Amino acid sequence: MSQINSNLRDRVRSQANYQCGYCRSQQKYVLGVLEIEHIIPKAAGGSDDEENLWLACRLCNSYKGIQTESKDPVTNRTVNLFNPRQQLWNQHFKWVNNGIFVEGLTGVGRATVLALQLNNPYAVTVRQAWISAGWHPPSTSSTSTSDREAP
């Protein structure tokens, strides 16, 4: 089990703007605490260093598991999964059908949508409810630091 101190956890949560780096679920709308996830899982040699940590919802984190790469369904090439700390969400994904579905724009995006099952039935149903309530998709002002260039 990871021994990530509370100051580092708080910093990562703030850097991620309190939302999942993959499906963009916002902490204020999910039941349960968003998890600190290892971008490169510890089982694959990842560390507890800040640059390897980000925020993920339980669904995304569980679907990701120890995966670090997957196949792009268009090119059939194996690509790295999206790195929410280093890559820009809007360059790899977009919302379609008024925000109900996440569509991958690049090989990385397409592979990540499939590997993390970003359009699973539960996520789609919840997004539909959030859209009805006016909570989704996240506005530009509520995007995480992953929408800006990494240092």
Short description:
This protein is an alpha+beta fold. The protein has one domain. The chain contains 5 helices and 6 strands.
Please characterize this protein's 3D structure:
The protein has 151 residues and is α+β, with helices and mostly antiparallel strands. The protein has one domain (6-147). 28% of the residues lie in helices and 15% in strands. The radius of gyration is 15 Å and the shape is globular.
Q: Distance between the terminal alpha carbons, to the nearest Å?
A: 29 Å
In helices, the fraction of residues equals: 25-40%
Order of adjacent strands in the largest pleated sheet: 1-2
> Counting H and I runs of at least 4 residues, what is the number of helices?
5
Uncertain segments: 141-151
Helix/strand/pairing category: alpha+beta
Q: Give me the Rg, rounded.
A: 15 Å
Could you tell me the mean pLDDT? 91
Major sheet summary line: 2 strands, antiparallel
The overall number of domains is: 1
Strand content: 5-15%
| H and E order | HEEHEEHEEHH
Globally, the shape reads: globular
Total strand segments: 6
